[in-house]
Specification:
With about 210 residues, the chain is an all-alpha fold. It contains eight helices and no strands. About 75% of the residues lie in helices and about 0% in strands. The protein has a single domain, classed as Up-down Bundle (Glycerol uptake facilitator protein). It is globular and about 55 Å long. Helix 1 packs antiparallel against helix 2, helix 1 runs parallel beside helix 4 and helix 5 packs parallel to helix 8.
């Protein structure tokens, strides 16, 4: 139960940071999209660092179904526990969107109209997720103490070097379909995003398994 609650709270705060900073950044930037994205990326990366530092000793601080899937494939997490993680992550993600909307006076959930379609967007999600899992696998093996900073830094930079602004997380993607704000995604674009993310995570997991094969 403690692991479930940790994943729920951690993912909720992550989405609150993503959506809330997107709303605040867009409001204060007065039409300057680059400035809004800078605020959004920094707030997300820094929040993620803090959340990983807090919750790693409790649940491993996955906050992402694909990190959980990778842990199952590496036989570091039991499948039944992974299912509870999945429910916590998805539920927490939607709660985080609701909390951000509540703070900024938006309707609780609104279907997004923010189009994110096209090969470039989908390839971006494959690449972003591959990179995220590569950072996690590499740090867990060689530099566990710095994983929070590496993951937070990577996500901050991936906002800028990917066309999709690096969702890299199915729970995040699903929840962002119900915010019609700066960070939203149109529901019809969710499935290809998630498919690309799954392929990216599997590619990284199997590549690093091959790297370390005795």
């Amino acid at each position: 139960m403690r692991r479930f609650v940790a994943e729920l709270i951690g993912t909720a705060f992550l989405l609150c940071a993503i959506v809330g900073s997107g709303i605040m950044g867009e409001t204060l930037a007065n039409g300057n999209v680059a400035l809004a994205l800078l605020a959004n990326s920094l707030a997300t990366g820094l929040a993620l660092m803090g959340l990983i530092l807090i919750f790693t000793p409790i649940s491993g601080a996955h906050f992402n179904p694909l990190v959980t899937l990778s842990a199952v494939l590496e036989k570091k997490l039991a499948p039944n526990m992974a299912v509870s993680y999945l429910f916590a992550q998805v539920g927490g993600a939607f709660l985080g969107v609701w909390a951000a909307h509540l703070m900024f006076g938006h309707p609780v959930w609104v279907v997004s109209h923010h189009a994110r379609a096209g090969v470039g967007q989908y390839f971006s999600e494959w690449l972003a997720t591959f990179g995220l899992l590569a950072v996690i696998h590499g740090c867990k093996r060689y530099s566990p103490p710095v994983i929070a900073f590496a993951v937070g830094g990577y996500i901050t930079s991936a906002y800028w070097f990917t066309a999709s602004t690096s969702f890299a997380n199915p729970a995040v993607t699903l929840a962002r379909a119900v915010t019609d704000t700066f960070t939203g995604i149109r529901p019809s674009d969710v499935l290809p995003f998630v498919a690309a993310q799954i392929m990216g995570a599997l590619s990284a997991t199997f590549l690093f398994r091959w790297f370390w094969k005795e």
